[in-house]
Amino acid sequence: MSNSVLKSPLKQSLNIALIQLKAGADKAANLLKVTKFIDSAVKTSSIGKLHLVVLPECFNSPYAVDQFRNYAELIPSGETTKLLSSLAKKHGIFIVGGSIPELDQENDKIFNTSLTFSPEGEIIAKHRKVHLFDIDIPGGITFKELVTLSAGDKATVFKLGEFGNVGLGICYDIRFPELAMIASRNPYNSFAMFYPGAFNTTTGPLHWHLLAKARAVDNEMFSVLCSPARDVGGNGYQAYGHSLVVDPYGAIVAEAGEGEEILFATLDKDLLPKVREGIPVHYQRKFDVYDDFVGKGGVKVSDL
Ligand SMILES: NC(=O)CC(=O)C(=O)O
Question: What's the CATH number for 14-278?
């Protein structure tokens, strides 16, 4: 992480909108939809001035192993990067840009990549999905991202302007507690983890809420999960929906349904010290019993 030393006072309330949209096969239509949803979130915000918008995993393409290469773009010269940069600048907001298939031309690899933009339209974070979704549940779902994707090799923590530090993972990354643990602890002290994520109708009911709450309670931080909308009647991947914001107590702040919608929520950072004073697990770790691997080297954190 670079240039991320925090300076007080930090802003205490972050107003966010999660855009739960359904992406189809037509990329131009997907990008137009993103533009309209973001414009509308800014205009119709029910929580005052919006600071940040989150998009879902794979919002400009179908979520399909055999399609990633067809939709992959170079970063930062690709059309999706340029569009999100211009929308962030136009509205003066942060955008946690879900994820898109990224083409690494030099090595001929495809990554599932999430970019975050500052209100000036600059890229301030780039996370490549570290844990690829590779599962096979008999009678449920088989999905093999490894067939066409390569895995990222870094945790991602970055400074969200005057609000402080946050961490970023993509979907299956939430099942591995380490990324959130790294983000929440010294020297990063993040107040939230963002997870654009496309769980499905098998694993969503099993684990979506549980994992969001687990990461929040483990680390006494917010977890923010933004899903695509369900493709009712479609024959492709069925996203679970239920975009979700969970507070550091593990309580649900806001939850979407299954269709397309904009979900608004305020992350009240005053809660963090309250939760951490009341239930001080954040400070009670026993590094004489087990190693503190965060901040001790051996952890690879994204440095733009
Ligand atoms: N799609 C994913 O990356 C993860 C998922 O659906 C799950 O973990 O379940």
Answer: 3.60.110.10
- 6 pLDDT band, cuts 50/70/90, is very low
| Catalytic residue of the set 22, 27, 33, 57 | 57
For ligand 1, say whether the CB of 208 is within 6 Å of any of its atoms: no
Three-class secondary structure assignment of the chain: CCCCCCCCCCCCEEEEEEEECCCCCCHHHHHHHHHHHHHHHHHHCCCCCCCEEECCCCCCCCCCCCCHHHHCECCCCCHHHHHHHHHHHHHCCEEEEEEEEEEECCCCEEEEEEEEECCCCCEEEEEECCCCCEEECCCCCEEEHHHCCCCCCCEEEEECHHHCEEEECCHHHHHCCHHHHHHHCCCCCCCEEEEECCCECCHHHHHHHHHHHHHHHHHCCEEEEECCCCCCCCCCCCECCCCEEECCCCCEEEECCCCCEEEEEEEECCHHHHHHHHCHHHHCCCCCCCCCCCCCCCCCECCC
Is residue 200 lining ligand 1, measured as CB closer than 6 Å?
Answer: yes
- Find the 220 Cα to ligand 1 centroid distance in Å: 23
What is the ipTM for the molecules in this complex? 0.98
Residues 138-191 have pLDDT tens digits of: 998 999 999 999 999 999 999 999 999 999 999 999 999 999 999 999 899 999
